[in-house]
Design a protein that fits this description.
Helices cover 43% and strands 17% of the residues. It is of the alpha/beta class. α9 links the parallel β11 and β12.
Length: 425
């Protein structure tokens, strides 16, 4: 399955307000000045364009395209492009800010950006999607650039769309410019290791957290919600390191086997069954898919969608450790109860940052004109993720805050200090 940068699909609350709630707590802990606070809470650039596209029936339809650069103080903006019918400016602004904090947490030289086009790609032909992506690229030709703003796949887009973006941008500049986008097909300069990158980051941070909690991986149980790219790779890599995966789920339901599910068998079944686990015989299906979250396991990996751990079910969570493969799986109100229960939660902006880390490696390789081996990519991404976990854990101890707020503290502190040193306001 192709790599896309994980991000919330549809927030039940205003996504910008949800992000700002955590931002505000971290800013207060840091004692951030009002001047720097106002700089960091506002995006650096917001671009909205109209994209007239000739549809297959010969009629012209106008689509709205958005690109938000939250910050470029650390380096070029980085972030995906989503094609979805409910894309709106507040959502894209929130995602762009999340990318700023995510890049800062793992200490890579990027700012945060995000883009979207309001459309329903499931109802469009490949030709219509291609014309839309090329039109969006041309409309953003002065925004995008290897040193300015580097897009990537997100919901509704993938390597195919990134290839079209690279081609259109390259034609406009009269030369091949691989580094303008990441998440490309391997033959166009994509990086080895990118497909498993996010799930691998979940595995690395989970093991680091288990070490702090003194949980032996060879005696630990784990439940993984979501069996797409992130969840299936996280489950496979955690299983390889000794954990017993007792539950997995996808859109067809949740599957439980207290003796452990053979993840390789589950992946093979999914891939041969039109991408779904429906009918999988290696486990019993739970009557309610949400029961997976309440199982008595050591490690819980929510890797599906946002707002699955809420005020309604947080009291029933029994896991000792939550590692967020998806963005925003835990609501802000549930956070406080998780902390009261003594559950460690490795937050989304840290746990799923392995994807953007390997996107950075893809960009570096494109700039060098040299390809790294998968072993080198994995080794370097593992080190970055482990270092990032250690820095966030240290901040959690220093400021006596949960890991989520500590991650925001690490990120905001880095960006704020850079603004101060550069004197950009």
């Amino acid at each position: 399955m192709a790599y896309i940068e994980p991000a919330p699909i549809k927030d039940k609350e205003n996504p910008l307000e949800s992000m700002m709630e955590r931002f505000n707590i971290a800013a207060e802990k840091l004692g951030l000045s009002s001047e720097v606070y106002n700089v960091l809470k506002n995006p650096a650039k917001q671009v909205i364009v109209s994209l007239p596209i000739t549809m297959d029936n010969g009629k012209i339809q106008v689509f709205e395209g958005i690109r938000v650069i939250h910050s470029n103080i650390l380096g070029p903006a980085k972030g995906g492009i989503r094609f979805a019918p409910d894309v709106h400016l507040d959502e894209v602004r929130a995602l762009a800010a999340w990318m700023t904090w995510k890049c800062a947490v793992v200490d890579i030289p990027y700012g945060g950006g995000k883009g979207g086009v309001r459309c329903n790609p499931r109802e469009m032909s490949a030709g219509e999607i291609e014309r839309l992506m090329r039109a969006y690229t041309l409309a953003m030709i002065d925004v995008f650039g290897p040193d300015k703003d580097i897009p990537a796949p997100d919901m509704g887009t993938g390597p195919r769309e990134m290839a079209w973006l690279m081609d259109e941008y390259s034609k406009a500049h009269g030369m091949t410019v691989n580094a303008v986008v990441t998440g490309k097909p391997l033959v166009l300069g994509g990086s080895l290791g990118r497909t498993e990158a996010t799930g691998r980051g979940v595995m690395v941070t989970a093991l680091a957290a288990m070490q702090k909690l003194k949980i032996n991986p060879f005696q630990a149980t784990c439940a993984v919600q979501g069996f797409g790219n992130v969840g299936s790779w996280a489950a496979q890599l955690l299983e390889e390191r000794g954990l017993r995966i007792v539950a997995i789920s996808d859109i067809s339901g949740a599957y439980h086997n207290k003796n452990g599910i053979n993840i390789q068998d589950a992946i093979a079944y999914r891939d041969s069954n039109k991408g779904t686990l429906e009918g999988f015989k290696g486990a019993e299906i739970l009557s309610d898919p949400m029961e997976l979250l309440e199982l008595d396991v050591d490690v819980l990996v929510p890797a599906a969608v946002e707002d699955v751990i809420t005020i309604k079910n947080v009291d029933k969570i029994k896991a000792k450790l939550i590692v967020e493969g998806a963005n925003g799986p835990t609501s802000a109100k549930a956070d406080a109860i998780i902390n009261e229960k003594g559950i460690m939660a490795v937050p989304d902006i840290l746990a799923n940052a392995g994807g953007v880390t390997v996107s950075y490696f893809e960009w570096v390789q494109n700039r060098l004109g040299y390809k790294w081996t998968a072993e080198r990519v994995n080794r370097r991404s593992d080190r970055i993720m482990k270092d990032a976990f250690d820095h966030v854990y240290e901040a959690s101890v220093k400021y006596d805050v949960p890991m989520r707020i500590a991650a925001y503290i690490v990120a905001i502190d880095k960006v704020a200090k850079t603004y101060t040193f550069r004197g950009g306001f």
